[in-house]
Amino acid sequence: MENPLQSNRDYEADARSILRDAKLRTESILLPVGTIGVSILQGSTNMRDATKKLMKSSGQDDRLEKEINLFFEFIYFFMHWTLRLAIQLIDHSKLMLLQDFLLEIVPPAAIDTYFSHLSNDAKNDLIAEFVEKLDMSEVEYGSCSPDGLALVLIKKLMGILVNEHINVPKLFSISILAIREFGEMQLGKSIDEFGQIKMSEQDMRRICEHLNEFRMSS
Predict the structure, then answer these.
(1) Domain limits of the chain?
(2) Cα(first)–Cα(last) distance of the chain, in Å?
């Protein structure tokens, strides 16, 4: 006759093993993706701080709006560079998954940087708007060669600083600094680690969906 206590202990051991495996599998995804996301946000913060020195705003509200737009634009720029690099390192299905994971991490963090005081509904609306502008920016950056990215960035920065005395040579230096900033992130290792994850696309997408559900409910 089967010992019910032994059966229960076996069940608990199996459950712990399953949970431990799920934790390790989830961490194998979130560690490289988290590293990439944090690097993009930190690099964008560095470039925002370098560029806002060129601003001459008409008041505090105007200055804050331009600062936010600068921060977001550098995120769009670095997101594009990240995916452009990933194209060279991982296959298409993993590339799409990487993009989806980054969309669950970077936009919410970007919005929280300035709008953490808002309600969840209001922040989710801003996140949706951010992603829409990110998609539009991806089309602009994606339509040119790597050599042309600096010029596209200059044009977009000029659009943000439109009411100011534009110093084009300084903006060109800023764009070159942004490219150098991306190089210093050294994201190739994290992208490659993501590409080497031994997990089905279905399971990886399920984890990504759980991130979305957690964000929407928190």
Answers:
(1) 33-217
(2) 48
